[in-house]
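Convert to structure. Protein one:
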Amino acid sequence: MLAYILNLATLICINAVLAITLNFIMGYAGIFSIAHAIFFGVGAYTAAYFALHVNASIFLVIPVAMVVAGLLSLVLALPALRVRGEYFVAASLGLQVLGVTVFSEWKSVTGGLGGMIGIPPADLFGHAVTDPVQFLLLALCCLFPVLGLTTWLLRSSFGRNLKAIRDSESAAHAFGKNVAFIKTMSVVISAALAAVAGSLYAFYMGFINVESFMLDTSVLLMAMVIIGGTGTLLGPLVGTILLMLLPGVFSYMSFLPQTEIGSIQQIAYGLAMVLLMIYRPGGIVGSSKGKAA
């Protein structure tokens, strides 16, 4: 039981980082991306490759993964500067499909469909982090700085500019805001911080393949943000905890067919999002009128 709780808590921390970083662009910049799993994957594959071939030090792996994901995020930032709304969602979907294809076919780097195995444990000051409790503490030590950094950014002038762009890009431009630079930086920051979660995931699992970075993951992350409360500081955390606990709750319901648990989860996610959009558009933490913070 303790092993299950530690595993669940660690995965909650990793997914919370992803939800927080997606909310950074979705809730505050108004950039609705369904390609967030790709930057999660870029961070994981970069961390795994670097750890296998260079060094497993957490202080080297995570910065390298962040830089790679941040640079690649410019591919997403370019359409964000030109299109909005449903057109950008379509563009991000294209990036999601492209990313999954690269992960699957670039066998010399990603291992293809077979994935990457034998990833060494994270090295922290010469100590291999293999104990589940120690890894949970490491995950928390990554989650809190990410939460703190995004909170600080959102409460700064940069965050106010993001909200201005979200509310009215034309008005923000008219007031002299450098809309292109602000949107680009928000995407780069979001992707780079998502790579932190990817690095943790690679070290924690010791094995990664493309199955963890599919469209389903991006949709689940979006559900975490929307259900918790888009454009709120605590919403992504609440949404992550609820959606990560839900599978465990269903698995303990003996009257449900165990072979259909996955489908039942998807139905529950969809139903929760529909009901929230009707009765509480702002999510659990957000305003009942759907106004973002």
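Protein two, convert as well:
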Amino acid sequence: MIIRKGNISDLSEMRRLFTDTITSVCKNDYNSEQIEAWRSGTENEERWMQVMNSQFVIVAKINGQMAGFCTLERGNYIDLLFVHKDFQHQGIARKMYTFIEQEVTIRKEKTLAAAVSKTARPFFEKMGFRMITEQTVNVKGIDLTNYKMEKDLNS
């Protein structure tokens, strides 16, 4: 597996991975209406361009195929962390997370934050995050539950 900085040429593969992962991996935690609303986020061209232009983006590749990606916003906020549906439970999220945490440490940040799905919450807890609050996010008129989480990097 190769982890490298993402670039604009990765964008279409990132968006496809985003929708495929939500559709197949998150289906046990969210109903079909919620899944559809969430994955519709890939249609927001401006948002994805903003991610690519202003966030620290990494991609994980295995034999040339994108296995996952992760983005860091504002220096210490994990905005997106997705692993391809065919590469679940192989340590890819952990490797990308470790890469991101090292970047945050280099930036001398004291905490790392994320708003994570029901599906991702156990992973983030294993990485040492604690839940700050449960929140409801409304996407296209549909409510989705997620969790504001934080990790103290000084401990």
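The chain is about 35% helix and 35% strand. The longest helix spans residues 11-25.
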